[in-house]
Specification:
8-stranded mixed β-sheet, alpha/beta, about 15% strand, single chain, 11 helices, Rossmann fold
Length: about 280
């Protein structure tokens, strides 16, 4: 299990899966251990995934200063990993809340990013939060699912503040609700550092105007991947985020939710691998 040391002395861990050229992967949550990403649906067959456990999550040590869980301060950890891996420029993939960290990294170190992949990324760093209205507007897309009738009232109560999070509405975050999705969801609570998550987006973490300006000059290609039925972000919000970048393309994975590599691994891997310039087998 490889480790490296952050600038403040915190020992951080990353996990390697697959062979070939490295692809640095940032998890979401926020502050969820990288284990939930697995091998990203088989993307490890094309690239060597370097999945970072952010400080205080997974196998990485907790920092002496809890304030260093803030998203903008985690940028230093990503840069330390790049240096540790010996990469002049790196391909970077981020999921969900990790998308804001990747955006801040690209804004601060634009010459260190060769390609950027944002998977169902939450664009807080751009001043584009996911709203409760977004989530509610997406919910009817699932009205024909067998679990919808029981799940929607609990989902609605959670969003309006009259109810707590209830696992009964977990299917809203998956494009395909099956046993694999249920097992994936069940691991979520134990993989997250709730204390760190509270700090991640706290006051001072984001400066959207400055970040948008910096990313508007980014020269590397960017892929923004949204799930067709994802409620956070919806494809329309992903489009707004993609428009910030001068060389971005938006792709919407059919039928996918917030974890698209689980919903249709083959579609997901082919799309990401093609963007990264990896050779693909011919379709039969």
């Amino acid at each position: 299990m490889p480790t490296f040391t952050a600038p403040d002395g915190t020992e951080l861990t990353y996990h390697l899966r697959g062979e070939g050229e490295p692809l640095v992967v940032l998890p979401g949550g926020p502050m969820r251990a990288s284990a939930y990403l697995g091998d990203l649906g088989g993307l490890s067959a094309h690239r060597r995934l370097a999945l970072l456990d952010l400080r205080g999550t997974g196998d990485s040590a907790a920092p002496a200063d809890p304030g260093s869980y803030r998203c903008d301060r985690l940028v230093d950890d990503v840069e330390a990993l790049r240096v540790h891996l010996g990469l002049e420029r790196m391909d970077l993939l981020a999921h969900s809340a990790g998308g804001s960290l990747a955006m801040l990294y690209a804004a601060r170190y634009p010459r260190r990013v060769r390609r950027l992949v944002l998977v169902t990324a939450t664009p807080w760093a751009l001043g584009m939060p996911v709203t409760d209205a977004d989530r509610l507007a997406a919910a009817p897309l699932r009205k024909d699912e067998p679990w919808f009738e029981k799940a929607f009232p609990a989902f609605e109560s959670w969003l309006d503040g009259t109810g707590d999070y209830d696992p009964v509405f977990a299917p809203f975050f998956y494009g395909r609700w099956d046993e694999a999705a249920a097992q994936h969801d069940a691991r979520g609570e134990e993989e997250c550092n709730d204390e760190a998550a509270e700090v991640y987006g706290s006051a001072g973490a984001y400066d959207p105007d400055t970040t948008r300006e910096a990313l508007g000059r980014l020269t590397c290609p960017v892929l923004v991947l949204a799930g067709e039925v994802d409620n956070a972000p919806r494809p329309a919000l992903a489009r707004r985020a993609a428009d910030v970048f001068p060389h971005a393309e938006l792709t919407v994975q059919p039928g996918a939710g917030h974890y698209p590599w689980l919903d249709d691994p083959e579609w997901f891997v082919r799309r990401i691998a093609a963007f990264l310039g990896e050779p693909l087998p011919s379709a039969e």
